[in-house]
């Protein structure tokens, strides 16, 4: 199998890929296939799982049922469609396998969990969870599905998608039992807000023993009192973005909005710091840290060097970590966007042609596993470095 086009974008050294490397990647993939075997009850399902994963990893233009079938030598996509829609196999076991596979290679007690939703544009009304709704991914209200993901970001900025939840709107979907039945939504499915989905995914990670030090997310989650309470009850440190109108209590016990604190800062309160590396180099901003009446809670303000635009953060910091670490955690939000970009561009996360509940979760989990394989392959290539890689 030709993996060069899939793996090369994540490999951090220059130069030609050697035959030894390619053989090693294929050997690693065969080991992953062997590990996947017990998930599937039938020999046919195991074969289709391998075919599907190979298709997701392949350097083909689009990764849907027809193109994957053609790539793996199937005359038509019916067998792979049946594998996603009807074959009896446990997708939750595959999700656990992905998590365990990632932990064996990337686990770190200093890692950061990152939550973010992403949208998938869809036509029609039959795809599970679809409706006209706002998607930050699309930048508008559109006909789409939205899913909430949990990413794992290591101190070296390796990043993978660890968990996923499809958001099912309450009124247009869960209140319409006939529509849910047609899409295969289990009868006991309850409505969950996206912050509630994040709480569930974090609980699952903790129960599985996933090591991490921090959690971060955007305003949708930072302003949610239920999620904040869950994190604080579990003593999980976080840095989450919040709206400028967020009420805060300063050290003198005065209540105000966080945006008003920014107006009172003098020039000595700001420190210029980088919070990670993006496609255009280091992301550098001016930052200010503001204490609150509760010593476990702090507020942070980020100011753009270019136009002075402000962003605001609520920090739950019971371990009293330093300013630099808080800035680093805030910057860990971007890697989940990079995960989405890589998973959509390289392993077809958004190119599925399924409508039903089980098939959606199966495609997503297989795409996440394919992305994990690429991330782990890149991680080991980075550890070897250019000299070892070229030998």
Description:
- With 391 residues, the protein is an alpha+beta fold.
- The chain has 15 helices and twelve strands.
- Strands 1, 2, 3, 4, 5, 6, 9, 10, 11 and 12 form a ten-stranded mixed sheet that branches.
- β3 (140-153) and β4 (159-166) form a beta hairpin.
- α9 (194-207) runs parallel beside α11.
- Residues 1-15 have low confidence and may be disordered.
The low-pLDDT segments are 1-15
* C-alpha Rg (nearest Å): 22 Å
**Run of helices and strands:** HHHHHHEEEEHHHEHHEEEHEEEEHHH
Helix content: 40-55%
> What does the overall shape look like?
globular
Q: Please count the beta strands (DSSP E, at least 2 residues each).
A: 12
Distance between the termini: 22 Å
Task: Please sum up the structure shown.
The protein is of the alpha+beta class.
């Amino acid at each position: 199998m030709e993996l060069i086009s899939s793996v090369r974008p994540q490999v951090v050294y220059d130069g030609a890929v050697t035959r030894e490397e390619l053989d090693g990647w294929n050997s690693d993939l065969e080991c992953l296939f062997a590990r996947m075997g017990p998930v599937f009850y039938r020999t046919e399902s195991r074969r289709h799982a391998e075919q599907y994963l190979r298709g997701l990893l392949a350097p083909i233009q689009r990764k849907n049922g027809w193109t994957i079938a053609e790539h793996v030598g199937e005359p038509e996509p019916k067998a792979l469609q049946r594998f996603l829609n009807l074959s009896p196999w446990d997708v939750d076991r595959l999700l656990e396998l992905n998590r365990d596979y990632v932990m064996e290679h990337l686990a770190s007690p200093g890692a950061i969990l990152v939550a973010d939703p992403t949208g998938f544009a869809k036509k029609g009304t039959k795809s599970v969870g679809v409706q006209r709704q706002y998607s930050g991914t699309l930048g508008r209200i559109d006909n789409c599905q939205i899913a909430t993901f949990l990413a794992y970001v290591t101190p070296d900025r390796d990043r993978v998608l660890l968990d996923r939840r499809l958001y099912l709107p309450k009124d247009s979907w869960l209140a319409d039992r006939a529509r849910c039945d047609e899409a295969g939504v289990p009868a006991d499915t309850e409505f969950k807000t996206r912050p509630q989905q994040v709480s569930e995914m974090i609980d699952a990670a903790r129960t599985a023993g996933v090591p991490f030090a921090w959690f971060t997310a955007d305003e949708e989650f930072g302003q949610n009192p239920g999620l904040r309470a869950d994190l604080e009850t579990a003593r999980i440190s976080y840095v989450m973005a919040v709206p400028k109108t967020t009420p805060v209590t300063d050290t003198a016990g005065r209540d105000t909005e966080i945006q008003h604190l920014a107006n009172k800062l003098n020039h000595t309160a700001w420190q210029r710091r980088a919070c990670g590396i993006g496609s255009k180099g280091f992301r550098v901003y001016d930052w200010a840290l503001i204490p609150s009446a509760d010593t476990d809670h702090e507020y942070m303000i980020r100011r753009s060097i270019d136009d002075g635009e402000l962003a605001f953060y609520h920090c739950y910091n019971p371990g009293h970590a330093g300013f630099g670490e808080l800035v680093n955690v805030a910057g860990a939000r971007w890697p989940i966007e990079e995960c989405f970009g890589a998973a959509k561009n390289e392993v077809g996360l958004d190119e599925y042609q399924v409508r039903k509940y089980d098939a959606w979760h199966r495609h997503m989990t297989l795409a996440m596993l394919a992305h994990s394989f690429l991330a782990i392959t890149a991680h080991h290539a980075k550890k070897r470095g250019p000299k070892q890689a070229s030998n």
